[in-house]
Amino acid sequence: MRRIGSLGAVFRRQLEQLELGPGRVLVAVSGGADSVALLDLLVESTGEFDLDLTVGHVDHGIHPASAVVADRVRELAQSYGLAMLERRLALGSGATETMARAARYRALEAMRREAAADWIVTAHHADDQAETVLMRLMRGSGPAGLAGMAARRGRIVRPLLPFRRAELARHVLALQHSPWDDPANADPTHLRSWIRHRMLPLLDERLPDVTDRLIQAAERAKVDRAGWDGLLDLLPDLDYRAESDGASVALKGLEGADSNLLLCMIMALGRRSNFSIGLARARRVAGLVRTGRSGNQVPLGSGRTAEVSFDRLRLLHRPAALEATELPLGGQHGAADWGNWRFTWQLAKAPARQARVAGTAWFEPSPLLVRACRVGEKVLPLGGRGRRLVVRCLQDARVPRSRRAEWPALVHEGAVVWIPTVCRSDHLVPRPGMEALRVDAELT
Fold first, then answer.
1. Do 302 and 242 fall within a single domain?
2. Please, which residues have CB within 8 angstroms of residue 275's CB and are 6 or more apart in sequence?
3. Do residues 338 and 370 lie in contact, with contact meaning Cβ atoms separated by under 8 Å?
4. What H or E segment, with its residue span, contains residue 218?
5. What's the chain's average pLDDT?
6. What confidence category does residue 1 fall into, taking pLDDT thresholds of 50, 70 and 90?
7. Does some domain include residue 148?
8. How does pLDDT run across 57-78, given as a tens digit for each residue?
9. Does pLDDT of 107 surpass 90?
10. What stretches of 252-379 show up as alpha helix (H) in DSSP?
11. pLDDT higher at 3 or 284
12. pLDDT of the residue at 383
């Protein structure tokens, strides 16, 4: 028995607003009522929105009955004629909410790639949003954090955010399914469960519409956040640039702002670049902007850094240290990653002329090795006079100081023969037309 009614109509309007479809969708189904309702509503919408659905189930390996739940989800997928992908994580009973969430999203992303899906759709709803806002408020989040979960962020889509838990439960009841009620959802040792079953009921006794108020607060904060983000596009002097390892803006676009405006702009820039910058760190970044001293840095946590260089403020995600990492370019052809760089090589006829600054170079066939540039090293530039310090070449190419330790050098018998996109050396240059090793380097 299927009864959609107005719930389905509102859901389809939500899909239109989120521009979901046409495309492939991985539906995250835990087996609980919310995700069962989500799957059913999406199945009803596949024709209208040209959606190709795959069920994705993550067994965290926390509850002893998790294998039974996986069987139920498998049967549910089969009843709709849908393919299903599964991941078992074996986290154990000691896993925290944060650990489980991070592992779940990693597993969902792996399944999305396996299914070649465009989006991951989750069953977060309005009550989840209210809990999130209250939880973030208790942890001291600012206005941006109080906006709660976004209906769409990257490949994650949450079309149920306008719906309350109770109406989704009624929808599933009408379908005559038996959803799984995870005991962890009622375990007060988990903060979200404690808020849901202990704190919100107490608040509701005094403020019967407290959940609605929290949802409205999230909507207001979302408008505020979107407004600041939109302001960035109205400032031509800002010159925002997305880069392979972060983002940058022109200092002159920030220098005229007063203190409060500057802090808001820095936090908005962080959000746009997927960098979490709270008020304390924003004040330190503002200090960088005010001094404008090239090379100064502020750590932002999790390997992320704010840096002033070449009249720009850069927000950089620094990879793991690569000083000891070496990549031999073996064989007549191949492809491999080194840090944020992608190297490919193959035999090809050498051109009549090579550029000194380029992402492609040809070499006489010889053993070549990729490693990090080193302090004090020198290179003999192609067509130049005398050897130059590698650091000078990097400076001339306007490579920020924070990136130089992770910039690759192509080396032959200890000598630098190429700094990709910066300087080709005068060594191992093949004669025009001879069979040579072509190497391409791209900052991904």
1. yes
2. 246, 269, 300, 304, 315, 317
3. yes
4. helix 210-232
5. 89
6. very low
7. yes
8. 998 877 777 788 899 999 999 9
9. yes
10. 259-272, 279-291
11. 284
12. 87
What are the residue ranges of helices labelled H in 62-154?
Answer: 66-79, 97-115, 126-138
If asked whether residues 265 and 207 sit together in one domain, one would say no
Quote the domain boundaries for residue 387: 327-443
Report which of 139, 128, 108, 103 is spatially closest to residue 185, judged by C-alpha positions.
128
Residue 47, pLDDT > 60, answer: yes
- Looking at this protein, which amino acid is placed at residue 248? S
Going by C-beta distance under 8 Å and a sequence separation of 6 or more, which residues neighbour residue 296?
288, 307, 308
Within a domain: residue 228?
Answer: no
The Cα 166–Cα 168 span in angstroms is: 5
Angle between helices 210-232 and 126-138 (to 10 degrees): 80
Q: Which amino acid is at 82?
A: L
Whether residue 332 is contained in a domain is answered as yes
**What integer is the mean pLDDT of 310-319?**
84
User: Residue 49 — pLDDT band, cuts 50, 70, 90?
Assistant: very high
Task: Clarify whether residues 185 and 52 are in a common domain.
Answer: yes
- For residue 148, what is the domain's CATH number? 3.40.50.620
Q: How far apart are CA 191 and CA 49, in angstroms?
A: 37
Do 182 and 51 share a structural domain? yes
pLDDT value for 234: 87
The whole-number pLDDT of residue 3 equals 41
Residue labelled with tokens 């959802």:
185
Q: Which pLDDT score, from 0 to 100, does residue 15 have?
A: 95
Q: Which of 192, 220, 248 represents a domain boundary (last residue)?
A: 220
Cα distance between residue 175 and residue 113, in whole Å = 31
Kindly report, residue by residue over 372-416, the tens digit of the pLDDT: 988 889 999 998 888 999 999 999 998 888 788 889 999 999 999
Domain end marker among 279, 299, 317: 317
Q: Are residues 214 and 249 in the same domain?
A: no
Give the contacts of 233 (CB within 8 A, at least 6 positions apart): 240
> Do 398 and 281 fall within a single domain?
no
Residues 6+ apart with CB under 8 A from 318: 245, 303, 304, 305, 402, 406
How many separate domains does the chain show?
3
When comparing pLDDT for 244 and 433, which is higher? 433
pLDDT in tens, 173-208: 888 777 777 666 667 777 888 998 899 999 999 999
Give the N- to C-terminal CA distance of the chain in Å, as an integer: 51
Paired with 248 in beta bridges are 241, 314
The whole-angstrom separation of Cα 179 and Cα 72 is 8
Question: Same structural domain for residues 257 and 382?
Answer: no
| 230 lies in some domain | no
Shared domain check, 204 and 293: no
